[in-house]
Design brief:
The protein is α/β, with parallel strands linked by helices and about 300 residues long. Helices cover about 35% and strands about 20% of the residues.
Length: about 300
């Protein structure tokens, strides 16, 4: 009897595992996401999963779990723009599905630093159009207003001790192009009480205080040097979930405390989780097809009605 025949006879049999090292992984093949869509499993509102790719070992798909705890923000670093776009799009879609299946009020804000007319810009607009009740697409011109809104909400939740409020997720694509978020060279941490905080300082507060009250940041930056320009040493520590694509040995050591990213090949990345002491190699998801995104949007339409949009 063939193994496929045995699998066909089982009501909940898993598909065969096939390792395809030379091509990107596809979110459409994520069995956990399929089970979530079918209602076989339920999301965890206080610790949602962002699926990023397929593992290179026999285990569940690689995921970053956004637990409500200090330092639980996610940053992807590396110059492979297409790979970064695939991972953050997969993370966004993971959150959208969980919002529809058991995270009422969840909201995604995409702060898009990509050039107008680029593939990345078109994809983020397509995602916002497919899931208008969950995703809000913003350009670099909206940086100040969005960061101000997130900072105010994080402060309000802290003051009201709303530690189980609806999840808000800020996805920042191409951080290096968002100059308003860069720390000023002459900023030594002092500010007059009668002046509003600049966006960079407000953002630092969101990174520090947000995760504990359900406001998480997920971003992509192309290089370690650009990441350092935007974030000081304290802010960098707020990213306990770190993804690295292929980079130099020095940059890998600075970002992951390991030179492992310098040995990565095509269609490979590393996920480091400080809280779990994890360093996992995986195959990142490619950019999902537009037709699949639109089909998913039609399936979930009206299932989630978040607040704040």
């Amino acid at each position: 009897t063939r193994s496929s025949d045995l699998a066909d006879g089982r009501p909940h049999a898993y598909p065969p595992i096939v390792f395809e090292g030379n091509v990107p992984a596809e979110l459409q093949n994520n069995t956990m996401l399929s089970s979530l869509l079918a209602g076989h499993i339920a999301p965890s509102p206080l610790a949602p999963c962002c699926w990023l790719g397929e593992p290179v070992a026999i285990k569940e798909p690689t995921a970053a779990r956004l637990v409500r705890a200090s330092g639980l923000n996610l940053a992807v670093v590396g110059q492979q723009e297409e790979t970064a776009l695939g991972m953050l799009a997969a993370a966004a879609l993971s959150l959208v599905v969980q919002a529809a299946r058991g995270m009422p009020g969840a909201a995604l804000f995409v702060l898009d630093g990509s050039p107008a007319g680029s593939r990345a810009s078109a994809l983020w607009q397509q995602l916002a159009a497919a899931f208008p009740s969950v995703i809000r697409h913003l350009s670099f011109r909206d940086t100040t207003s969005l960061i101000g809104q997130l900072a105010a909400e994080a402060d309000r939740r802290l003051q009201a001790r709303e530690f189980e409020a609806a999840g808000w997720f800020c996805i920042i694509y191409d951080l290096g192009r968002l100059r308003d978020l860069r720390k000023a060279e002459d900023d030594f941490g002092f500010a007059r009480s009668d002046q509003p905080l600049p966006p960079s300082r407000q953002w630092a507060n969101v990174l520090r205080d947000g995760p504990g009250v359900g406001i998480h940041t997920l971003l992509w930056c192309d290089t370690w040097s650009n990441l350092q320009r935007a974030l000081d040493r304290q802010a960098l520590r707020e990213f306990g979930l770190r993804v690295a694509m292929q980079m130099s040995q020095a940059d890998s050591s600075n970002w992951l405390d390991s030179p492992a990213a310098s040995r990565l090949g095509l269609h490979r990345a590393l996920l480091a989780s400080e809280g779990e002491g994890l360093l996992e190699k995986f195959r990142p998801y490619s950019v999902p097809p537009v037709a699949w995104i639109e089909g998913l949007g039609a399936r979930l339409q009206g299932a989630a009605t978040p607040a704040g949009l």
